[in-house]
Specification:
Among the domains are: 82 residues, Immunoglobulin-like; 72 residues, Serine Threonine Protein Phosphatase 5, Tetratricopeptide repeat (Alpha Horseshoe); 87 residues; 175 residues, 2-Layer Sandwich (Heat Shock Protein 90), CATH 3.30.565.10. It is built from 27 helices and 14 strands. The strands form 4 sheets. Strands 9-11-12-14-13 form a 5-stranded mixed β-sheet. A hairpin with a 7-residue loop joins β13 and β14. The protein is globular. It starts with a helix and ends with a strand.
């Protein structure tokens, strides 16, 4: 009997333990609603306008009836931030109400602590209201957001408030890709108050400008003891990103794994997905395809459990990896799934916009989509059916499944036309032309290529408009930042004037020396003049830089229209004599050159190896047209490491074009074009373009007035481009043009290129 009783007790304990562990495990992974109250411990008054976040998700604007409703999981860390008290960290243990008590916080103490510009509660509320408004418009309207910041800076602020303001300014500029301004304002915030999270943002901004060494210094300077759990994960993730960019794979792997351990321990789902995906990137960079495939498979599963937007985003990323590693079947399969999910997502978004629930989609999915749209609106802009259809068609072309690729490319063109996406339409049209050419439908190939050329012209015109828009936008942002800077400097000047006035009054009362008042006044005037002169100088310098950047953008994408026109005529002549093979070959090589020119049009410098490839292709095309006029050689010194040098895209092409069109073309007998690339020293190389044509003097005599005018304009544009680049990058390029031979025949162009 005793044995039976003992057995029953043991079994009861086992059952209770099992049930409890199951309940705990379930509770630990279930998302629940919890009310968070933030109060002053002394008088139990609620504190508004706090930043309440869990795993980086902010619930600031959810303040309702003196509490913040948040969604959480057991084990996650709650972070409460406010200018009036030190940051509070709280580990969530259950779904019961959380009460955060802040010691020493009330309106009078807060006012005294932060040296508020006005000791009335209404003034403090105004500060917080403007701060909230600036944060609210940060992602949608930069100018409106900056206007609220200006309102704050018009008043006197404490160092704590200054830190908060400039931290917000840094995040605003980071959101709008104004990285230099972002870094500058983050540093100003740190000068006012030490904040480890700002160092993380500084690292992000620095990596965006490829300043990886500087980003590493910011991250290594972070005090991990002052970070919350989510921020610690982010720190290790960013360190992994830095070392991955620097190709230090061992350090990258260690930091990613350190962050992953913390994320998994605290159930930070979004970061688990991100780091698994980046470990996949790391394996891919190491060349370990099998490991990369395994990790990307995990990241896809994890992303699918988060929300539809994150799922599609990860599918597109992994599909791009499959494309790079020529795993086309996997790429196509994944993009088809992404296309299905995108269709459902678009449908649900339209329902949400119309405040209708799509009954064909489960209720849980609708709410999940709604949340994901609210969280990640920027991601939606990069997810579209036309782009996915194009990429599927492109992969099928790589597999040589040309007929299967056609409907996807046609659907991409149709969707792109509907959504006015000219970039995708251009790429899909070009690819469709290639497909029709490969299957022997040359009429359709030519029709689509003509449409492609038309789209290129349209995009070129749009690019010019975008440059003008960017110029106006940059000008407005610069004006806003200048106003903000001026406000701070004016306040500093006003403070100085007040101090001087007080001192003057004291001196007048003590010694009655009116002359000192005059001296101080003159001193203030001189300081003001120096300040105005410095401001004007700085403004002019910034304007000059902006003008140079815009001028370069307009010059970079230019190619002699004569070459394009004559190249198309060459294709036409091949077609006219039924030389389809040469026409297709010439057209293919020409399209590669044009695509490369367009792809590099936004870059100041490209790798020298890429420039050599473009030159070889360009000279080959010109030689195909003028085989009877010249032969050519391209000699490259074997001792040169071309990958160590960079050069403005298509910088050498106009000189080669001049050699062919204005020198060799006028020569009666067959000429020679020589291109020599040789080493000068460890930090510079020489490029010599030499022809034995009629020479510059004779070429001018043979030209019409209109031709002379066109040449002059082209050469002046090249020279201006070199001058701007040398001004911006400290004399990296030197060009010298001379006669090749003593009798005045031939032309020799010598280019000296220095390392960056």
């Amino acid at each position: 009997m005793k044995k039976q009783t003992l057995f029953l007790i043991i079994m009861s304990l086992i059952v209770m333990t099992t049930v409890y562990s199951q309940e705990y495990s379930t509770q630990k992974n279930v998302v629940f609603d919890v009310e968070v109250r933030v109060v002053d411990k002394e008088n139990s008054k609620p504190i508004k306008n706090a930043d309440v976040s869990i795993n980086g998700k902010l619930f600031r604007y959810n303040y309702i009836n003196e509490y913040y409703p948040v969604k959480a999981i057991v084990g996650q860390q709650l972070v409460v931030v406010h200018p009036g008290f030190e940051t509070v960290y709280y580990d969530i243990k259950s779904n019961e109400e959380i009460k955060i008590q802040v010691e020493g916080f009330n309106y009078s103490n807060y006012s005294r602590k932060i040296k508020s510009y006005n000791k009335s509660d209404s003034k403090k509320d105004l500060f917080l209201q403007n701060l909230d408004s600036a944060s609210y418009y940060k992602n949608t309207n930069i100018e409106k957001s900056l206007s609220f910041v200006e309102n704050i800076l018009k008043e006197d602020n404490s160092s704590n408030q200054q830190a908060v303001i400039y931290k917000l300014l840094g995040s605003i500029y980071l959101q709008w890709n104004q990285y230099d301004l972002s870094i500058s304002n983050y540093k100003t915030s740190l000068e006012n108050k030490e904040d480890e999270t700002i160092k993380l943002q500084l690292a992000i901004a620095s990596m965006s400008t490829d300043e990886n060494n500087e980003a590493e210094l910011f991250l290594l300077d972070v005090n991990q003891g002052k970070l919350g759990i989510f921020e610690k994960v982010l720190l290790f993730e960013l360190l992994g990103d830095v070392y991955l960019k620097k190709k230090d794979f061992n350090k990258a792997k260690k930091n990613y794994n350190d962050g992953l351990v913390i994320a998994e321990k605290n159930s930070i789902a979004s970061k688990i997905t991100d780091i698994k995906s980046k470990l996949g990137d790391l394996s891919a960079a190491e060349g370990n395809v099998a490991k990369a495939n395994q990790l990307f498979s995990l990241s896809l599963d994890l992303a699918a459990k988060e929300n539809p937007v994150r799922s599609i985003k990860e599918k597109e990323k992994v599909a791009n990896y499959f494309n790079q590693t020529r795993q086309f079947d996997k790429e196509i399969n994944l993009r088809k799934k992404a296309l299905e999910e995108t269709t459902i997502l678009d449908k649900s978004i339209e329902s949400i916009k119309k405040k209708k629930v799509d009954k064909t989609i489960p209720k849980s999915d609708n709410s999940l989509i709604k949340d994901s749209v609210a969280i990640q609106p920027s991601v939606l802009n990069s997810i579209n059916s036309q782009s996915i259809n194009y990429k599927i068609g492109r992969a099928l072309v790589e597999k040589e499944d040309y007929k299967e690729a056609i409907p996807f490319l046609e659907k991409s063109i149709k969707d792109a036309a509907t959504k006015k996406d000219l970039i995708v339409k251009k790429d899909a049209t070009r690819k469709l032309s290639e497909v029709y050419s490969n299957v022997g439908e040359y009429d359709k190939a030519l029709k689509n290529y003509q449409e492609y050329v038309s789209l290129v012209d349209t995009l070129y015109n749009r690019k010019e408009q975008e440059i003008e828009q960017a110029k106006r936008f940059a000008k407005r942002i610069a004006e806003n930042q200048n106003r903000i800077t001026s406000l701070e400097k004016n306040k500093a000047l006003n403070d100085s004037k007040i101090d001087l006035a007080v001192k003057d009054q004291q001196l007048v009362k003590a010694r009655n020396k009116n002359q000192q008042v005059v001296i101080y006044s003159l001193l203030g005037g001189i300081l003001l003049m120096f300040f105005l002169a410095y401001t004007l100088f700085k403004s002019n310098k910034q304007q000059k830089l902006a003008n140079n950047l815009l001028a370069l953008k307009s010059m970079r994408s230019q190619m002699n229209p004569h070459f394009i026109f004559n190249a198309l005529n060459s294709v036409n002549s091949f077609i006219a004599v039924n030389d389809e093979r040469n026409a297709n070959r010439y057209l293919s090589e020409f399209s590669v050159l044009m695509r490369s020119v367009l792809e590099n049009s936004d870059e100041d410098f490209i790798p020298f190896t890429k420039e050599v490839e473009l030159l070889e292709l360009y000279v080959k095309l010109e030689h195909n047209r003028f085989k009877e006029k010249f032969d050519y050689t391209i000699n490259i010194d074997e001792n040169i490491h071309l990958e160590d040098f960079s050069i403005p895209p298509m910088l050498l092409q106009p000189y080669i074009e001049n050699a062919i069109w204005h020198g060799l073309r006028y020569k009666e007998e067959k000429g020679v074009l020589e291109i020599h690339i040789s080493k000068v020293d460890a930090n510079s190389i020489s490029v010599v373009i030499k022809d034995d044509g009629v020479g510059r003097k004779r070429s001018i005599e043979l030209k019409t007035k209109n031709q002379l005018k066109q040449k002059s304009k082209g050469m002046s544009t090249i020279q201006k481009r070199i001058e701007i680049l040398n001004d911006m990058y400290q004399d990296r390029i030197d060009i010298k043009v001379s006669d090749a031979f003593e009798d005045g025949t031939g032309t020799k162009v010598e280019l000296l290129l220095k390392k960056n």
